[in-house]
Design brief:
177 residues; alpha+beta; Alpha-Beta Plaits; four-stranded mixed β-sheet; 3 helices; 25% helix
Length: 177
Amino acid sequence: MTETNTPATGRATAQRDTRAAPAPGTQPGTQSGTQQVMTRPRGESSLWTEHGRTTIAGEVVAKISGMAAREIKGVYDFGTGTARALGAIKGRLGAEDGVTRGMSVEVGERQAAVDIDLIVEYGAAIPDLAESVRRNVIDAVEHMCGLEVTEVNIAVDDVHLPRQEAPEGSYGESRVQ
């Protein structure tokens, strides 16, 4: 097997000699030359079938993971303090806050791994919450992408505390007459 770069796509291709193994139902020596096998660019996944391939970008897996994790009660937000601060600035400027904040994925040809930076609501049982998030992310990615999820690592970076409400009428009123 030899590997060459294809100028049109910039992707490496592998040349496999298929003459030695004819397809079922054909006579030896009647199969044509070589077949090209495309190798995937880094960060994308290829699902191969006899009718073609499906390529899934890492960003897709990150979005699916983010949406699946947000479905779990007790999840407040995602990302480290720096990522949340940058997200708040983007939000004030009118930019959409990304669903992939706090998600890091590694995607192979048939497998994916997900790392999540998580902020939980105060009072949530963290081990139970982490397991629920993990199960939901695995189910969503495997169902939607057809990739085997090898691991979902969860880092709990913060706990969101409920804000204490100020007594009604205490804003702006003078304490004395």
